[in-house]
Amino acid sequence: MATGAALRAFRKRIIPSFTSQTFASTFNSRSISTLVLAEHEGSSLKIQSVSAVKAAKSLSKDNSISLLLAGSGPGLHEAAAQAASCDPSVSQVLVADSDEFSHPLAEPWAKLVRLVQQKGGYSHVITTSGSFGKNIMPRAAALLDVSPITDVTGISEPHLFVRPIYAGNALCTVRYTGVGPCLLTIRATSFPVSPITSDSKSNEASISQVDLSTFGEDSVGKSRYVKHTSQDIERPDLGNARVVITGGRALKSAENFKMIEKLAEKLGAAVGATRAAVDAGYVPNDLQVGQTGKIVAPELYMAFGVSGAIQHLAGMRDSKYIVAVNKDADAPIFQVADYGLVGDIFDVIPELLEKLPEKK
Ligand SMILES: Cc1cc2nc3c(=O)[nH]c(=O)nc-3n(C[C@H](O)[C@H](O)[C@H](O)COP(=O)(O)OP(=O)(O)OC[C@H]3O[C@@H](n4cnc5c(N)ncnc54)[C@H](O)[C@@H]3O)c2cc1C
After folding, report:
1. Angstrom distance (rounded) from CA 290 to CA 273
2. Domains of the chain as residue ranges with CATH
3. pLDDT of residue 225
4. What span, in angstroms and rounded, lies between the C-alpha atoms of 139 and 106?
Protein backbone atom coordinates (compact mmCIF):
# COMPACT_ATOMS: atom_id res chain seq x y z
CA MET A 1 0.00 0.00 0.00
CA ALA A 2 1.02 3.63 -0.20
CA THR A 3 3.79 4.79 2.10
CA GLY A 4 3.71 7.92 4.22
CA ALA A 5 6.69 9.37 2.39
CA ALA A 6 4.65 11.20 -0.26
CA LEU A 7 2.52 13.10 2.20
CA ARG A 8 5.38 13.71 4.59
CA ALA A 9 7.43 15.07 1.71
CA PHE A 10 4.51 17.35 0.87
CA ARG A 11 5.21 19.40 3.97
CA LYS A 12 6.61 22.75 3.13
CA ARG A 13 8.80 25.12 4.99
CA ILE A 14 7.85 28.76 5.18
CA ILE A 15 10.78 30.88 6.15
CA PRO A 16 10.13 34.56 6.62
CA SER A 17 12.46 36.83 4.72
CA PHE A 18 13.36 39.17 7.60
CA THR A 19 16.23 37.07 8.90
CA SER A 20 18.57 39.92 9.79
CA GLN A 21 22.03 38.86 10.99
CA THR A 22 22.28 41.90 13.22
CA PHE A 23 19.03 41.04 14.87
CA ALA A 24 20.06 37.43 15.40
CA SER A 25 23.43 38.26 16.88
CA THR A 26 21.89 40.80 19.26
CA PHE A 27 19.64 38.11 20.64
CA ASN A 28 22.26 35.38 20.60
CA SER A 29 24.62 37.45 22.68
CA ARG A 30 22.11 37.68 25.52
CA SER A 31 22.47 35.10 28.22
CA ILE A 32 19.83 32.41 28.15
CA SER A 33 18.04 31.30 31.27
CA THR A 34 14.85 29.29 31.15
CA LEU A 35 11.96 28.72 33.47
CA VAL A 36 10.23 25.40 32.73
CA LEU A 37 6.67 25.15 34.03
CA ALA A 38 6.48 21.55 35.17
CA GLU A 39 3.43 19.41 35.84
CA HIS A 40 3.10 16.69 38.38
CA GLU A 41 0.49 14.07 39.10
CA GLY A 42 0.44 13.15 42.77
CA SER A 43 4.08 12.67 43.67
CA SER A 44 5.32 12.08 40.12
CA LEU A 45 6.73 14.55 37.68
CA LYS A 46 4.98 14.20 34.32
CA ILE A 47 7.21 12.90 31.56
CA GLN A 48 6.06 15.77 29.30
CA SER A 49 7.83 18.18 31.66
CA VAL A 50 11.11 16.37 30.98
CA SER A 51 10.44 16.95 27.27
CA ALA A 52 10.11 20.66 28.09
CA VAL A 53 13.54 20.47 29.77
CA LYS A 54 14.91 18.81 26.63
CA ALA A 55 13.50 21.67 24.57
CA ALA A 56 15.08 24.18 26.97
CA LYS A 57 18.43 22.45 26.52
CA SER A 58 18.24 22.94 22.77
CA LEU A 59 17.97 26.72 23.21
CA SER A 60 21.61 27.03 24.19
CA LYS A 61 24.41 24.93 25.63
CA ASP A 62 24.84 27.43 28.46
CA ASN A 63 21.19 27.61 29.35
CA SER A 64 20.53 27.85 33.06
CA ILE A 65 17.32 25.89 33.58
CA SER A 66 14.94 26.26 36.53
CA LEU A 67 11.87 24.11 36.98
CA LEU A 68 8.75 25.55 38.59
CA LEU A 69 6.35 23.19 40.34
CA ALA A 70 3.23 24.37 42.11
CA GLY A 71 0.67 22.57 44.19
CA SER A 72 0.16 21.70 47.81
CA GLY A 73 0.87 18.85 50.16
CA PRO A 74 3.53 16.15 50.44
CA GLY A 75 3.08 14.89 46.85
CA LEU A 76 4.38 18.22 45.57
CA HIS A 77 7.62 17.88 47.52
CA GLU A 78 8.17 14.30 46.37
CA ALA A 79 7.62 15.44 42.77
CA ALA A 80 10.10 18.29 43.39
CA ALA A 81 12.71 15.78 44.57
CA GLN A 82 12.14 13.79 41.40
CA ALA A 83 12.36 16.96 39.31
CA ALA A 84 15.67 17.85 40.95
CA SER A 85 17.27 14.73 39.50
CA CYS A 86 15.39 14.43 36.21
CA ASP A 87 18.12 15.96 34.08
CA PRO A 88 21.67 17.18 34.87
CA SER A 89 21.02 20.49 33.15
CA VAL A 90 18.35 21.52 35.67
CA SER A 91 20.07 23.88 38.09
CA GLN A 92 17.21 24.55 40.48
CA VAL A 93 13.67 23.52 41.29
CA LEU A 94 11.33 26.23 42.53
CA VAL A 95 8.39 25.04 44.57
CA ALA A 96 5.24 27.10 45.12
CA ASP A 97 3.32 25.39 47.89
CA SER A 98 -0.09 26.91 48.50
CA ASP A 99 -3.74 25.85 48.50
CA GLU A 100 -4.14 28.25 45.58
CA PHE A 101 -2.30 25.73 43.42
CA SER A 102 -3.89 22.55 44.67
CA HIS A 103 -5.74 22.41 41.33
CA PRO A 104 -4.21 23.56 38.07
CA LEU A 105 -6.40 26.65 37.61
CA ALA A 106 -4.93 28.95 35.01
CA GLU A 107 -5.43 32.28 36.76
CA PRO A 108 -3.31 31.76 39.90
CA TRP A 109 -0.74 29.84 37.85
CA ALA A 110 -0.45 32.69 35.32
CA LYS A 111 0.14 35.15 38.16
CA LEU A 112 2.72 32.82 39.64
CA VAL A 113 4.54 32.68 36.30
CA ARG A 114 4.62 36.47 36.17
CA LEU A 115 5.92 36.67 39.74
CA VAL A 116 8.66 34.08 39.24
CA GLN A 117 9.65 35.36 35.81
CA GLN A 118 9.96 38.92 37.04
CA LYS A 119 12.03 37.88 40.06
CA GLY A 120 14.29 35.57 38.07
CA GLY A 121 14.53 37.63 34.86
CA TYR A 122 14.36 34.51 32.68
CA SER A 123 14.88 34.97 28.97
CA HIS A 124 12.55 32.05 28.17
CA VAL A 125 9.57 30.37 29.78
CA ILE A 126 8.64 26.94 28.41
CA THR A 127 5.88 24.44 28.99
CA THR A 128 4.21 21.73 26.94
CA SER A 129 1.24 22.44 24.72
CA GLY A 130 -1.19 20.13 26.49
CA SER A 131 -4.28 21.47 28.22
CA PHE A 132 -2.08 22.73 31.11
CA GLY A 133 0.14 24.86 28.89
CA LYS A 134 -2.63 25.97 26.56
CA ASN A 135 -4.56 27.19 29.57
CA ILE A 136 -1.79 28.98 31.40
CA MET A 137 0.65 30.33 28.83
CA PRO A 138 -1.61 32.79 26.96
CA ARG A 139 -2.72 34.29 30.29
CA ALA A 140 0.86 34.52 31.58
CA ALA A 141 1.90 36.09 28.27
CA ALA A 142 -0.87 38.69 28.57
CA LEU A 143 0.23 39.54 32.12
CA LEU A 144 3.83 39.91 30.94
CA ASP A 145 2.68 41.84 27.84
CA VAL A 146 4.41 39.53 25.37
CA SER A 147 3.20 37.31 22.57
CA PRO A 148 3.63 33.57 23.18
CA ILE A 149 4.84 31.17 20.50
CA THR A 150 2.79 28.01 20.65
CA ASP A 151 3.14 24.41 19.53
CA VAL A 152 6.86 24.60 18.83
CA THR A 153 8.25 21.44 17.24
CA GLY A 154 11.81 22.57 16.59
CA ILE A 155 14.29 25.09 18.00
CA SER A 156 16.92 26.39 15.57
CA GLU A 157 18.25 29.30 17.62
CA PRO A 158 17.24 30.89 20.92
CA HIS A 159 14.68 33.02 19.09
CA LEU A 160 14.04 30.97 15.96
CA PHE A 161 11.42 28.26 16.16
CA VAL A 162 9.60 25.80 13.92
CA ARG A 163 5.89 25.25 14.38
CA PRO A 164 3.26 23.50 12.26
CA ILE A 165 0.52 25.47 10.53
CA TYR A 166 -2.47 24.47 8.34
CA ALA A 167 -3.17 21.40 10.50
CA GLY A 168 0.44 20.27 10.16
CA ASN A 169 0.55 20.49 6.36
CA ALA A 170 3.24 23.15 6.46
CA LEU A 171 6.01 23.99 8.86
CA CYS A 172 6.61 27.62 9.60
CA THR A 173 9.87 29.06 10.89
CA VAL A 174 9.18 32.02 13.15
CA ARG A 175 11.51 34.48 14.79
CA TYR A 176 10.61 35.97 18.15
CA THR A 177 11.12 39.71 17.86
CA GLY A 178 9.70 40.81 21.22
CA VAL A 179 11.82 42.55 23.82
CA GLY A 180 10.32 40.76 26.82
CA PRO A 181 10.76 37.13 27.80
CA CYS A 182 10.06 34.54 25.13
CA LEU A 183 7.16 32.31 26.19
CA LEU A 184 6.89 28.98 24.39
CA THR A 185 4.66 25.96 24.43
CA ILE A 186 6.34 22.94 22.88
CA ARG A 187 4.98 19.69 21.49
CA ALA A 188 6.28 17.02 23.84
CA THR A 189 6.26 14.45 21.03
CA SER A 190 8.86 16.51 19.17
CA PHE A 191 11.25 16.36 22.13
CA PRO A 192 11.06 12.68 23.12
CA VAL A 193 12.70 11.51 26.34
CA SER A 194 13.07 8.18 28.12
CA PRO A 195 10.59 7.37 30.87
CA ILE A 196 11.56 8.58 34.34
CA THR A 197 12.60 5.58 36.41
CA SER A 198 13.84 5.34 39.97
CA ASP A 199 17.37 4.79 38.65
CA SER A 200 17.29 7.67 36.14
CA LYS A 201 19.17 9.79 38.66
CA SER A 202 21.48 12.56 37.68
CA ASN A 203 23.12 15.15 39.91
CA GLU A 204 20.54 16.78 42.11
CA ALA A 205 19.51 20.39 41.58
CA SER A 206 18.79 22.64 44.54
CA ILE A 207 15.17 22.93 45.67
CA SER A 208 13.86 26.22 46.99
CA GLN A 209 10.50 27.64 47.95
CA VAL A 210 8.95 30.49 46.00
CA ASP A 211 8.31 33.46 48.25
CA LEU A 212 4.56 33.94 47.92
CA SER A 213 4.28 36.80 50.42
CA THR A 214 3.62 39.28 47.60
CA PHE A 215 1.29 36.98 45.71
CA GLY A 216 -1.80 38.90 46.82
CA GLU A 217 -5.28 37.87 47.77
CA ASP A 218 -6.74 39.11 44.52
CA SER A 219 -5.22 36.11 42.80
CA VAL A 220 -8.47 34.17 42.87
CA GLY A 221 -9.81 34.41 39.36
CA LYS A 222 -13.09 33.92 37.61
CA SER A 223 -12.71 30.17 37.23
CA ARG A 224 -13.35 27.72 40.02
CA TYR A 225 -12.34 24.09 40.40
CA VAL A 226 -15.29 21.73 40.19
CA LYS A 227 -13.97 18.19 39.88
CA HIS A 228 -11.43 16.01 38.19
CA THR A 229 -12.50 12.86 36.41
CA SER A 230 -10.03 10.50 34.89
CA GLN A 231 -10.67 7.09 33.55
CA ASP A 232 -8.95 3.94 32.77
CA ILE A 233 -5.82 4.02 34.80
CA GLU A 234 -5.00 0.50 33.60
CA ARG A 235 -4.20 1.61 30.08
CA PRO A 236 -1.16 3.66 29.05
CA ASP A 237 -1.65 7.39 28.74
CA LEU A 238 -2.64 8.30 25.17
CA GLY A 239 -0.07 11.09 24.97
CA ASN A 240 2.88 8.83 25.85
CA ALA A 241 1.87 5.33 24.77
CA ARG A 242 4.20 3.30 22.54
CA VAL A 243 1.22 1.82 20.71
CA VAL A 244 -2.10 3.56 19.95
CA ILE A 245 -5.16 1.80 18.54
CA THR A 246 -7.65 4.24 17.08
CA GLY A 247 -11.21 3.71 15.93
CA GLY A 248 -13.26 5.91 13.65
CA ARG A 249 -16.88 6.50 12.78
CA ALA A 250 -16.93 3.13 10.99
CA LEU A 251 -17.26 1.42 14.38
CA LYS A 252 -20.90 2.59 14.34
CA SER A 253 -21.60 2.35 18.09
CA ALA A 254 -20.12 2.53 21.57
CA GLU A 255 -20.77 -1.19 21.87
CA ASN A 256 -18.75 -1.98 18.74
CA PHE A 257 -15.99 0.39 19.89
CA LYS A 258 -15.28 -2.10 22.67
CA MET A 259 -13.53 -4.21 20.00
CA ILE A 260 -10.95 -1.43 19.75
CA GLU A 261 -10.60 -1.42 23.53
CA LYS A 262 -10.11 -5.21 23.60
CA LEU A 263 -7.49 -4.99 20.91
CA ALA A 264 -5.71 -2.23 22.83
CA GLU A 265 -5.79 -4.40 25.93
CA LYS A 266 -4.17 -7.29 24.10
CA LEU A 267 -1.45 -5.06 22.73
CA GLY A 268 -0.90 -3.03 25.91
CA ALA A 269 -1.87 0.02 23.87
CA ALA A 270 -3.72 3.27 24.46
CA VAL A 271 -7.07 3.86 22.78
CA GLY A 272 -7.60 6.78 20.44
CA ALA A 273 -10.60 7.97 18.45
CA THR A 274 -11.45 10.33 15.64
CA ARG A 275 -13.58 13.36 16.30
CA ALA A 276 -16.43 11.72 14.38
CA ALA A 277 -16.32 8.76 16.80
CA VAL A 278 -16.22 11.13 19.78
CA ASP A 279 -19.03 13.31 18.45
CA ALA A 280 -21.13 10.20 17.87
CA GLY A 281 -20.69 9.40 21.57
CA TYR A 282 -18.75 6.13 21.17
CA VAL A 283 -16.01 7.31 23.54
CA PRO A 284 -15.26 10.39 25.66
CA ASN A 285 -13.50 13.32 24.06
CA ASP A 286 -10.24 12.90 25.98
CA LEU A 287 -9.51 10.06 23.54
CA GLN A 288 -9.71 12.30 20.49
CA VAL A 289 -6.57 12.42 18.39
CA GLY A 290 -6.02 15.30 16.02
CA GLN A 291 -5.85 19.01 15.55
CA THR A 292 -8.40 19.67 18.27
CA GLY A 293 -7.52 16.58 20.28
CA LYS A 294 -4.28 15.01 21.46
CA ILE A 295 -1.08 15.02 19.46
CA VAL A 296 0.53 11.59 19.56
CA ALA A 297 3.68 10.11 18.06
CA PRO A 298 3.81 6.48 19.18
CA GLU A 299 6.03 3.80 17.69
CA LEU A 300 2.94 2.10 16.25
CA TYR A 301 -0.36 3.78 15.37
CA MET A 302 -3.16 1.52 14.15
CA ALA A 303 -6.21 3.20 12.60
CA PHE A 304 -9.40 1.19 12.07
CA GLY A 305 -12.16 2.70 9.98
CA VAL A 306 -10.51 6.12 9.97
CA SER A 307 -10.73 8.15 6.75
CA GLY A 308 -7.59 10.22 7.39
CA ALA A 309 -9.00 13.75 7.36
CA ILE A 310 -6.23 16.35 7.64
CA GLN A 311 -7.44 17.37 11.09
CA HIS A 312 -6.93 13.79 12.25
CA LEU A 313 -3.56 13.43 10.52
CA ALA A 314 -2.41 16.59 12.33
CA GLY A 315 -2.47 14.60 15.55
CA MET A 316 -0.78 11.35 14.49
CA ARG A 317 1.25 11.74 11.32
CA ASP A 318 4.55 11.79 13.25
CA SER A 319 3.95 8.23 14.49
CA LYS A 320 6.83 5.94 13.60
CA TYR A 321 4.75 3.24 11.90
CA ILE A 322 1.19 3.81 10.77
CA VAL A 323 -1.08 0.87 10.01
CA ALA A 324 -4.51 1.51 8.50
CA VAL A 325 -7.48 -0.73 7.85
CA ASN A 326 -10.22 0.75 5.71
CA LYS A 327 -12.63 -0.73 3.22
CA ASP A 328 -12.10 2.17 0.82
CA ALA A 329 -8.82 1.74 -1.07
CA ASP A 330 -8.82 5.48 -1.83
CA ALA A 331 -9.17 6.61 1.78
CA PRO A 332 -6.60 9.38 2.47
CA ILE A 333 -5.29 7.52 5.53
CA PHE A 334 -3.47 5.19 3.11
CA GLN A 335 -1.35 8.12 1.91
CA VAL A 336 0.33 8.33 5.30
CA ALA A 337 0.17 4.63 6.19
CA ASP A 338 3.30 2.51 6.19
CA TYR A 339 1.13 -0.62 6.06
CA GLY A 340 -2.43 -0.63 4.77
CA LEU A 341 -5.10 -3.26 4.52
CA VAL A 342 -8.21 -2.76 2.40
CA GLY A 343 -10.81 -4.67 4.33
CA ASP A 344 -13.83 -4.57 6.58
CA ILE A 345 -12.96 -3.80 10.19
CA PHE A 346 -15.78 -6.09 11.32
CA ASP A 347 -13.83 -8.98 9.76
CA VAL A 348 -10.31 -7.80 10.51
CA ILE A 349 -10.63 -6.84 14.19
CA PRO A 350 -12.32 -10.10 15.32
CA GLU A 351 -9.66 -12.06 13.43
CA LEU A 352 -6.89 -10.07 15.11
CA LEU A 353 -8.54 -10.59 18.50
CA GLU A 354 -8.70 -14.30 17.86
CA LYS A 355 -5.15 -14.70 16.60
CA LEU A 356 -3.27 -12.38 18.91
CA PRO A 357 -2.06 -14.02 22.11
CA GLU A 358 -3.45 -12.86 25.45
CA LYS A 359 -1.40 -10.14 27.11
CA LYS A 360 0.85 -11.62 29.76
C1 LIG B 1 -11.85 22.62 12.88
C2 LIG B 1 -11.92 21.13 12.82
C3 LIG B 1 -11.17 20.40 13.72
C4 LIG B 1 -11.21 19.01 13.69
N5 LIG B 1 -10.44 18.30 14.58
C6 LIG B 1 -10.40 16.96 14.48
C7 LIG B 1 -9.56 16.20 15.34
O8 LIG B 1 -8.89 16.71 16.22
N9 LIG B 1 -9.56 14.86 15.18
C10 LIG B 1 -10.30 14.21 14.21
O11 LIG B 1 -10.23 12.98 14.12
N12 LIG B 1 -11.10 14.91 13.41
C13 LIG B 1 -11.18 16.27 13.52
N14 LIG B 1 -12.02 16.95 12.72
C15 LIG B 1 -12.98 16.20 11.89
C16 LIG B 1 -12.38 15.65 10.62
O17 LIG B 1 -12.49 16.61 9.61
C18 LIG B 1 -13.14 14.38 10.16
O19 LIG B 1 -14.50 14.68 10.03
C20 LIG B 1 -12.99 13.19 11.09
O21 LIG B 1 -11.64 12.97 11.40
C22 LIG B 1 -13.57 11.96 10.42
O23 LIG B 1 -13.58 10.89 11.29
P24 LIG B 1 -13.62 9.38 10.75
O25 LIG B 1 -12.42 9.14 9.92
O26 LIG B 1 -13.87 8.53 11.93
O27 LIG B 1 -14.98 9.36 9.93
P28 LIG B 1 -15.24 9.34 8.37
O29 LIG B 1 -14.60 10.48 7.69
O30 LIG B 1 -16.71 9.19 8.23
O31 LIG B 1 -14.51 8.03 7.86
C32 LIG B 1 -14.90 6.74 8.17
C33 LIG B 1 -13.99 5.83 7.37
O34 LIG B 1 -14.29 4.50 7.71
C35 LIG B 1 -14.30 3.72 6.53
N36 LIG B 1 -15.20 2.60 6.80
C37 LIG B 1 -16.56 2.62 6.94
N38 LIG B 1 -17.02 1.41 7.27
C39 LIG B 1 -15.93 0.60 7.31
C40 LIG B 1 -15.76 -0.78 7.60
N41 LIG B 1 -16.78 -1.56 7.95
N42 LIG B 1 -14.51 -1.28 7.55
C43 LIG B 1 -13.44 -0.51 7.21
N44 LIG B 1 -13.56 0.79 6.95
C45 LIG B 1 -14.77 1.34 7.00
C46 LIG B 1 -14.78 4.63 5.44
O47 LIG B 1 -14.29 4.18 4.18
C48 LIG B 1 -14.16 5.95 5.85
O49 LIG B 1 -12.89 6.14 5.26
C50 LIG B 1 -12.01 18.34 12.74
C51 LIG B 1 -12.76 19.09 11.83
C52 LIG B 1 -12.71 20.46 11.86
C53 LIG B 1 -13.51 21.22 10.86
Report:
1. 9
2. 13-211 (3.40.50.620), 243-350 (3.40.50.1220)
3. 87
4. 7
Q: How many angstroms is it from 153 CA to the middle of ligand 1? A: 25
197 exposed, middle or buried (CB, 10 Å; 0-12, 13-18, 19+)? exposed
305 among annotated binding-site residues: yes
Whether pLDDT at 21 is above 80: no
Ligand 1, pocket-test mutation among 257, 271, 274, most atoms within 8 A of CB: 274
Q: What is the pLDDT of residues 155-194, one digit of tens each?
A: 999 999 999 998 888 999 999 999 999 999 999 989 988 8
ipTM, 2 dp: 0.99
Most confident region among 6-20, 103-117, 218-232, 327-341 by mean pLDDT: 327-341
Element (H, E) at 76: helix 74-84
User: Which residues approach ligand 1 with their CB closer than 6 A?
Assistant: 248-250, 274-277, 288-293, 305-307, 309, 311-312, 315, 326-328, 331, 344-346
Ligand 1 atom nearest to CA at 252: 38
Q: Ligand 1, closest atom to CA 290?
A: 8
